[in-house]
Amino acid sequence: MTVVTPLSSRASGSSRRPRVPPAIIRGSEALPALHVVDEVAGDLGVVLWRSVRNVLLWAHTPPERRTMLFDSGAAAARAAELGRVRPDAELLAPLSVVVALLEKPERVEVARLVNACRRVASWAEGEGAMGTALEFMQAAALVSGDDASLAVAVGRLARRRAEYDRAESWYLRSIVLGRQRGDWRSHSLGYLGLGNVHLQKGNFPAARRMLRRALGAATRRGVGEVRGMACHDLFACEVETGAGLEASALAVDAVRAYGPGDRRVPRLAYDVAYHWVLLGHFGPALRVAELLAVHPEFDSVAEKVLVLGLAARAAGGVGDRAAFARAREELDPLLARYERVQGDDAARENASGAMLGVAYGASSLGDRYLAISCAERGLALAMSRGQGRVV
Q1: Which of 13, 137, 191, 295 places its Cα 20 to 30 Å from the Cα of 374?
Q2: Helix axes 265-279, 282-292, angle to 10 degrees
């Protein structure tokens, strides 16, 4: 595990300002950014890996030593590689910025390099290559050094990959950087992210503390969007700890803070339906789950896995064998795929919970063998990702 403080934050600030916490930039991988070649096949993966390594080297080198950082022929060689690989137009432009970095490292514009890394990260996340997305977003944050919103983005991707220590380090950076620079949205999101790390790990008291801090910071600074998210996540936390009907007030607060038409409302509807399942209201929960299964906000594989698991659990609870079979028909091939493919974190993060949902549904329908089988599969996957909440 490697810890580093970006160069620009080492020399900034007075002694009275809180020290910006160092960031963890590597996990257990043998080489930096090795996730990239694991996730992106062929020559494109190699080009992406070399590109992010180039950016990281530049970010960690003092400005006065960057002039002779790369060989004289490095830019031409990389341009030739891009010509052979022919990446999508979505990738060609940001990778061309890295070619410019290789050619004149002392003249590259920081904002342009940050934007290039963010664009590659966005592409990778869309492809389900979460390790690649994390590496490029982290490179953007290291190049910038003091952007609290980028620290939040790195924390989110690390959390989705179940790299909890790395996620916490970046969220802590966002809290301090956000306060120093008056970026109260990122400051509040840092607390929210820490809360969700603890929630995912199953540490509900710590999750509640961080989420309440997020709510307080967002309320004081008038960040309505984050206030809604904090109420939403506090609702999820209270549901998991068995708070019962009194938790519903937080869901109402979240809806009010979000406002009509907010894209987060369907996800809140999922959490409310999950709450209903825990209360034994299986019929209404099943109707909501089946509606969400065809909702555009749940069209990604990761979200689809989540809502189909809930549908299976609710269908079993209400005794609807046909609905249970429909949910399993869609869900089973997805779950089998993400048990086999170790690198695709976009859906694996929700797969263990979906397996648990099927196990509950099968148990309600009296299918003991299926219940045990799905529970064992869900347990193995949850333990491999440190998901204490599911375990």
Answers
A1: 295
A2: 150
